[in-house]
Amino acid sequence: MFEAGGVPRAALTLQLGSYAGFVGAHWWNLQDAALRCESEVQEQERKICPDVLYRAGRTLSRQETYTPRLILMDLKGSLNSLKQEGCLYGDTKIDTSVAWQGNLMTHQEDPPAKNLFLQDLSKLEGGMSSDGGFSPRALPLSKDVSQLPTQLHVSQKGHQLEGSVRVWSDYLRVRLHPRSIFMIHQYNDDGESSQLEAFGQGESLLHDPTYLEELEDRLHFYVEECDYLQGFQILCDLNNGFSGVGAKVTELLHDEYSGRGILTWGLTPVIHNVGVSWKDFYRLMNTVLGIVHLSSHSSLFCPLSLNGSLGLKPEAPVTLPYVHYDASLNYHSSAILATALDTLSAPYRLHSSQFSMVQLADAFNSSGRKVVAAGTAVPFPMAYGQSLPDALCSYQLAVPWTPLSSCGEQKDSCCFAQSVVLRGIGKENHISTSYLIQGPCKVLPPYPQFFSALLNKQGFLLDKLPSCSTAVESIPVLTALQSSPALYSALYRLYKELHQVDVRRWASFFSAGIELYDFQEALHELRTLSQCYKTSSELDESEDEADTD
Amino acid sequence: MSAVKALNPKAEVARAQAALAVNISAARGLQDVLRTNLGPKGTMKMLVSGAGEIKLTKDGNVLLHEMQIQHPTASLIAKVATAQDDITGDGTTSNVLIIGELLKQADLYISEGLHPRIVTEGFEAAKEKALEVLEKVKVTKEMDRETLVDVARTSLRTKVHAELADILTEAVVDAVLAIRKPDEPIDLYMVEIMEMKHKSETETALIRGLVLDHGARHPDMKKRVEDAYILTCNVSLEYEKTEVSSGFFYKSAEEREKLVKAERKFIEDRVNKIIDLKKRVCGDSNKGFIVINQKGIDPFSLDALAKEGIVALRRAKRRNMERLTLACGGMAMNSVDDINADCLGHAGLVYEYVLGEEKFTFIEKCDNPRSVTLLIRGPNKHTLMQIKDAVRDGLRAVKNAIEDGCVVPGAGALEVAIADALVKHKPNVKGRAQFGVQAFADALLIIPKVLAQNSGYDPQETLVKVLAEYAESGQLIGVDLNTGEPMVPAAAGIWDNYNVKKQLLHSCTVIASNILLVDEIMRAGMSSLKG
Q: Which domain holds residue B258?
């Protein structure tokens, strides 16, 4: 009764790291596609509330804007053609007036080449000047979607972006608020020197008062204006130094905003394994420290990756039955994770329910089980007109989804707690699931078209190959978040892999801030964490292990 | 053949002369990039990124951070130079110039067969003497406002144009003087720097109070309050529904409702306590009452406060809490249980300013503000950044001067004096190390030379005039950049920081010596990790 009905319980998103940028860019694009299609669907079907993750604003020239409530950290060089300030709030005229009366020397970098998608996008939004100089004022996305030009589907024609995507900004369709992009200038995105590759480096970055103040200022900007803040969702790279940044950020949020939910998704790109090198140990140590610290400061932590496992020699990436993705492309793998995220996060983004992040986390948190595993079926295989029970029956006891948390295949569907969301299935086949959302997941360009030819435009299965292939525009998606016993072996395996080696061999890892003692402590915590997921059947087995330690 | 070659045939190796050549060319390269920066007549650099973003700077430190330096030696020098800035807030450009010049001068002797070790011994002897000269020429005096203004102006004129520099000079000096406490180190943290993209850069001003970048979130709250009590607190005034939702404490919907109500009541009680205090202290007078809370305030609480004529700001930044009490007085309260009139601060004027979607709250006319705000204005982002960088350096310069208790004449006067003293000192140094001393003396003269050159004068001609004038008058003589003639910087009010110069002499000598002593460079698939 005191919760004003209809007031969105706002959440702030943080993206830390470049793979987080990849996943995030796809995710915002998906949401953007849903927003643009909104005018087509009927009101009651619109169940995911965009106001949870977006904010309405206004530029200095009084134009309305609708931008993600987002803070995004990445390294120098990852923006390519994107301006750090975005172009929504740009100056009305190009102002190069200079507060200096003496000599002036100009160093101008060549504008980077834009891929076909970005060229189309800028044409669409106000005509890119052909000289490629300063970006023109883009058409701001107003909250009133009906004003949007209808030719937005111009860029429907499939772009083969696979070859031209180097960084996430190469396919980001959404316009960002100037306070969103937070560049770390100390380290380079690529190249040999100055890489952010160890947990300790990331952690010490936020000991620097300039970065810390800047982060606090940005948090303040987004949080202060929220009447009801439900919490933070954090996308964080686990494999590099950003796991340390994430550890610090979650710690800060935990201290500063008590009572808010902090949902952390630990991301790892697909790892191509050619032999174990020091880099794999770095990755593993970052992952372990990340899991331990992120889970301890967050309300809920979920690793997300298409890798079979996160260990030194990761198993082959998972396969999805109706998606032919190229595992070597971050552009592809991140699209799948983003699709899963868009559906996984649905419970706390709904219009109708008052369910919040804190409640979602609480449902899983019993007995210290802060880590959960995710699974998804992208797309959920169902023939058009088939009923949901029929579609599910074919699975018998097996789970109808592919694991996304690198915990290996599950033997059975037993778990401590779970949240299952199914979207894009028509009203006619109603059954009781945890969450059933009618709107499907819109997969408009620049989403990669990597679907099996057996899918129709709405993402439903056909029984035979169609004569001409059509682009898939939307898909039904099933996701599950589970606190499952499979996490025991996954976490314990990471512990064992590092427990067996003498980490002092990588002295430079420890020169960057973290002490050996802290590391051993974290390793121990990982073990304790893994024990939370032990079921009685595994108990005897692990006691033996304890003896041999 | 180098041993590493036997082990790793791919290793690249440069030895002795070749190694030195590699290092010197890197140092000279860096020097060439930065040399046009030096002094108030240096060249401003506009960096335009591929995406069209503009960065405007003349500050060596900022430039070094912007460059993606790949050469390991150059990156080493850049790190030392930027460390200089971290410690003292100035001197990056001079640092790079002197290191480059030391290596160039040393190379002359080394190419004639002098061992680098001997040169570095000479450098060391020269540094000792130079520090002695520095101690001798430093001017210890009372750091009154006038001197501080001179110091700040010397620093700021090299960063922004003269008109703006004079405005900033007054602002930074008054800011530091306001927050200074006797016998305590100066905490520049108590000077808040706030930017507003608005009006022109010359509207930048010192606000004797605080400017917060947020405003009241209730339409009925007043936009302008005079003579106001300020309550600074860190108390949650929002219903967080944590207790109710997280447990399974309720059996039925009614019971849940009851729990929700109870918790809501809890928040209401807190709000009422604040309202009570307001009624007590303000009575029927016209005085205003402002609540600045570090935690959240939800719409219901805002509504209740607004009805009582209280202006409330939520989610104040943590770092502003201390500043608030220093600016307005009073105490930051962590609970409303025992609030009374003594906890309150006071401000003569509080008003809100709206700029697009951003709101600013000015808290001004404080009785005895010990925390102040430098409000930077400018028409565009790059100007704001340029002023912000300049203001930071200006503040550091004033702080350094106060803490040193002394200043050093600028305009190249110190370098001329040291060079002269070193030449006279040379015979006291034994053996070939004399050449090192000579190299050091010649290297320091790069500063007056580049100053003259950047102002459009012939460097040699100016240098000869200055040296002659120095020898003749015995006074410290620098370069007048408006005429190219010698002048007395002390009379013109050109003062540099003592500790900047001291740090400069130390770090340049150490790094130049280290680079000279490098005998072999190899590159053999090293990991790129750096601390």
A: 209-368
